[in-house]
Write a structure and sequence with these properties.
By secondary structure, the chain is mainly alpha-helical. The protein is about 65% helix and about 5% strand.
Length: about 80
């Protein structure tokens, strides 16, 4: 079945799919979903509980929020 997607865009979709898969894997290893069952938390607290870098954790959460894996609230906490 031929695709109407231009080759550069198709390649970008493959790369992004791999990145999102890896981000989900990292979030699972850090047990972030379990932490959020207690309620919304800021990224720095999630990082502290996970023993991870706060800035990196914030970026991870924002990437996953852009794919609706998590959600970022207006006050910066994640659900």
């Amino acid at each position: 079945m031929p695709s109407n997607t231009p080759p550069p865009l198709a390649l970008l979709e493959l790369i992004m799919g791999s990145m999102v898969t890896q981000a989900i894997h990292v979030a699972a290893r850090l047990d972030i979903a379990e932490m959020l069952t207690e309620g919304p938390l800021p990224a720095d607290e999630i990082a502290q509980r996970a023993g991870a870098d706060a800035d990196t954790t914030r970026r991870l959460l924002r990437v996953l929020a852009s794919y609706s894996v998590f959600a970022e609230q207006e006050d910066g906490r994640f659900t």
